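Quality-control log, excerpt.
Job 1 of 2 completed; input and output follow.
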Amino acid sequence: MRPILAAAGVAALALSPHPAQAQEFGCHSVPRFHVNAIEQKHDAGTLFAVKVRKPGDKSACKVTQTSADFVVGANGDPLWFEALTPRYLIMTRSTGPQGDVVIFDLDRRSYALDAPADEVAVSATGATFWERKETATRKNCPQLAKYKADGLGAVVTAETKFDFASGVVTATGQRRCDPTQ
């Protein structure tokens, strides 16, 4: 099971300058980019074909890997679409219960964040997620005995926010103990 995007006001987020959110595969557009999420044929995950739009470009989003200015992802890398903002492509990486939050800076054509985390929620100002930080112990995880009795492990996570305006990652100060498989 891969992490689920839990964002309120999805319809409002589709308007620029807010993030666009849609189904995993298919084309997504913001004023400066067309991004086509293409299912990998022989592996789990998605490749993202990106075309830079010129000012005033009103073309339909029909970018392919061949016509793209660049491609995000690689065969064998299980990336999944979460949201698109005017500057960032927000993805998750997972083939199982725990995954990563991956944020790609479309302007710089580089990864801005790749963190072991789950439960990403995208808003107009940033992406908030629970980042795995430390091994759970009886001292920092009161639920540890219950999780172990249920055949699970545990990890301490910290609520973390990636700010779209600054590109800065900040812990909110909230921590919790989460079960793991």
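Job 2 of 2 completed; input and output follow.
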Amino acid sequence: MPCGEVGAALCASDELTLKARINRSDTETIQQALDQLAAKGSVRKEGDEFIVGAETEGASAKELNRTLLSAMRKVEKRTTLRAEWTSNDGTTERFFDYVLKKTIKD
């Protein structure tokens, strides 16, 4: 679908880097959620948490964060996500689950 049909805001795309800690999930579920974002990255287990590092493109960190957590919660409703999304302009947005907690501009 061309940009004119869906609006310019949806066509704007930033490269974003994800660093996240995920509780109450599993590697397969996390990887499937990352695949939905067309993200390239890694998932490793550290204690009771999973550590995720990935790169993807999207309209906003908020939208990507929502999509990631929603996909994981379809499998396990108690999944928690602590995520940092860093854009290519150096802005970092920190989320706990769906809530934006802090924005840091470099």
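Post-run check on job 2. Helices lie at 3-6, 8-11, 27-36, 61-73.
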